[in-house]
Specification:
Elements: H1 2-5, H2 12-37, H3 42-52, H4 54-75, H5 78-103, H6 118-125, H7 127-150, H8 156-177, H9 185-191, H10 201-216, H11 231-248, E1 258-264, E2 276-278, H12 284-290, E3 294-299, H13 307-316, H14 330-333, H15 344-349, E4 354-359, H16 368-375, E5 379-382, H17 400-410, E6 418-423, E7 442-444, H18 448-472, E8 479-485, H19 494-499, E9 507-514, E10 527-529, H20 534-542, H21 548-559, E11 562-564, E12 567-570, E13 573-575, H22 582-599
Length: 615
């Protein structure tokens, strides 16, 4: 027994062999992570590690070695520390491969917060792989915990060695976690050869290695401080646009219509893509509405995912493009640190609206329960508290039809205006097994089954939307709807993605609907927009009183109708970089200063009526 317990008690020659073994283990694990990053290409892995980027590979291996030694010290066992390390790295590499496959995007440190979303993970990777991973992880944690418990029986000398190793590696890992600090030595070592590519995280990971990319996305300020940021500058901006709306609001209506936001999961038109032809239009019901009202294409930040980021933009009217690239998910990285954030929710709450969020799924996804509380929603209706929970055939998610019924029930309260924010789930992946049969058939370059079932999914979604807008005609209070798809589904083959330009893979459908048909742009059906413009555009289209912030966005939209990192639409053409004239630059800079003031600055603008409008 003592022999088993005193695992650190080895002869010097044995220690040397153990350290050599650990070093080899770390190098192999780093190669494995790179293999998963490079889509299982051994050729690219070995070229990266031993030809193109050897220095960065060694630096990444050093960090992994610290992590391994930390686990060994914590467990008091080289064997069990290495066992848990192997399981951790194995799962991390697999998760990165899966995310790259489905979303063409690597794993970020913040993604690890999603590890407790068991239901969604099981649905995404399949029941059998999920159960296998859970079993392996459970076994690893059990034996690791058992080792920690038994380590109390180590000799005093071994305990000193163990605790010293634990403290040293822990402090070094904490130092590593501040990778993005200005004077971090590890970051400086990477900077000797690293070419960081902030506008493309996929290329960033390829060029600096999985470990380099992962470290680059550790904690960082949401935005860098603009050179001219000051209280005076912010006051000048807020005064300028607040003065402007005093004139423009003179002719606006003071009515309080119901406002409904509907973010439809993965809603898009497969027919927009070269390489996909269909036997009948799955979005017929959608277009029956869209051709009668203000509608067009929305530029999504992501392909195949990133729902919460699109939702963040739509509610706050702040752009992800302005953030530092490491700010990958504001819902989990930024908002939890804030006590309040201006949004359409806070604006309407200040005008005596009842604000309700509906998501036919659980409350923990992207920390929505906490995020919605910070936004100021009065209530959050989830799958557990919904009245209507019907599903379509074998679809595991609550249907859009049920979700719309939930919204209509809220609108029965005619005493107060309602703001309802609905995030649907019906059309979430996976698609292949939802519907045994489908009326839709595609001719596509790969993954035909998933595309056909997806078309059936969006057809049901279109049908539900059409019925919803029909039902809204019976609502007495004027009711405005903004409907959009958050991103394309990750079902298209590499061939299809190659045959379509990047912009097309990031365009989804959107429309704005008025049950009284009063939108000023109802004859426009080819609009192009970014989601952070939704609220100001809706207010302008509906002739509702604007705020200074929405006035700024409205003027910016006229100059730059849509933009995200690497996608900029202005002067009726797309470009990968942002080149602006003086008018455009001034508007863009004003917007950037206001966003910085709220997310990283001193909140000077919150002390004005800039986000509230003229009272």
């Amino acid at each position: 027994m003592k022999k088993k317990l005193q695992i650190f008690k080895k002869k010097p020659v044995n220690y040397i062999l153990i350290m050599i073994g650990l070093l080899l283990f770390v190098l192999i694990s780093n190669l494995y992570l790179q293999w998963c990053q490079n889509e299982l290409s051994l050729d690219l892995v070995f070229k990266f590690a031993f030809s193109w980027h050897t220095e960065k590979f060694i630096l990444g291996s050093f960090v992994l070695l610290l992590f391994l030694l930390f686990l060994c010290s914590l467990a008091g066992s080289f064997a069990l520390g290495s066992f848990l390390y192997a399981i951790t790295i194995g799962i991390l590499g697999f998760a990165n491969y899966q995310k790259m496959f489905y979303r063409s995007e690597p794993i970020y440190p913040d993604d690890l917060k999603m590890i407790t979303e068991f239901g969604l993970l099981r649905e995404m990777i399949g029941t059998v792989p999920f159960l296998f991973i859970i079993l392996v992880a459970a076994v690893g944690v059990f034996f690791f915990g058992r080792a920690i418990y038994k380590s109390r029986l180590l000799s005093k000398k071994m305990q000193i060695i163990r605790i010293t190793g634990f403290v040293v590696t822990l402090l070094l890992l904490i130092y590593v976690s501040n990778f993005n600090s200005q004077n971090n030595l590890l970051r400086k070592a990477y900077d000797r050869t690293a070419l960081w590519i902030p506008y493309s995280q996929k290329m960033n990971y390829y060029n600096t290695g999985f470990m380099g990319g992962f470290l680059y996305n550790l904690k960082v300020e949401a935005m860098d401080k603009p050179d001219n940021y000051s209280k005076k500058t912010i006051e000048e901006i807020t005064t300028k646009y607040t003065d402007t709306i005093q004139e423009s609001n003179a002719d606006t209506q003071e009515e309080q219509p119901n406002i409904i936001f509907v973010m439809s999961e993965s809603f898009s038109d497969p027919q927009n893509l070269t390489g996909v032809t269909v036997n009948k239009d799955p979005l017929k019901d959608y277009y029956d509405i869209a051709k009668t009202t203000y509608s067009g294409k929305m530029l999504s930040q992501n392909y195949g995912g990133g729902t919460a980021n699109i939702e963040f933009e739509a509610l706050t009217s702040f752009s992800m493009e302005l953030f530092n690239p490491q700010m990958t998910t504001p819902y989990t990285m930024l908002i939890p640190k804030m006590t309040e954030i201006p949004s359409i929710v806070s604006l309407l709450k200040g005008q005596d609206y009842q604000a309700t969020a509906i998501h036919p799924y659980n409350t923990t996804m992207y920390k929505r329960k906490d995020v919605y509380k910070t936004f100021g929603f009065d209530r959050f209706i989830s799958e557990d508290t919904m009245t209507y929970k019907e599903k379509k055939q074998k679809n595991p998610y609550i249907s859009d039809e049920s979700a719309y019924k939930e919204v209509l029930d809220l609108l029965k309260d005619e005493n107060e205006p309602q703001f309802v924010h609905l995030v649907t789930m019906q059309t979430h992946m996976p698609y292949s097994d939802k519907y045994p049969t489908t009326e839709y058939s595609s001719q596509s370059l790969g993954n035909k089954t998933a595309i056909d079932r997806y078309m059936q999914d969006v057809a049901y979604s279109s049908e539900a939307l059409k019925q919803f807008t029909t039902d809204l005609k019976d609502v007495k209070r004027r009711t405005l709807v903004v409907f959009w798809g958050d991103h394309l589904p990750s079902i298209y083959s590499d061939k299809i993605k190659t045959d379509n330009d990047e912009v097309r893979m990031h365009e989804t459908e959107f429309l704005m609907y008025d049950n009284q048909e009063k939108l000023s742009g109802r004859n426009t059906h080819d609009a192009l927009i970014s989601p952070f413009y939704f609220a100001p555009t809706l207010f302008e289209q509906s002739n509702i009183q604007m705020t200074g912030f929405y006035q700024l966005l409205s003027e910016l939209e006229k100059q730059i109708p849509a933009f995200e990192k690497g996608f900029y639409y202005k002067d009726k053409q797309w470009s990968k970089t942002l080149s602006l004239n003086k008018t455009q630059q001034d508007l863009y800079d004003d917007y950037r200063l206001i966003q910085y003031d709220i997310v990283s600055g001193e909140n000077y603008s919150l002390n004005t009526d800039f986000f509230k409008g003229i009272q």
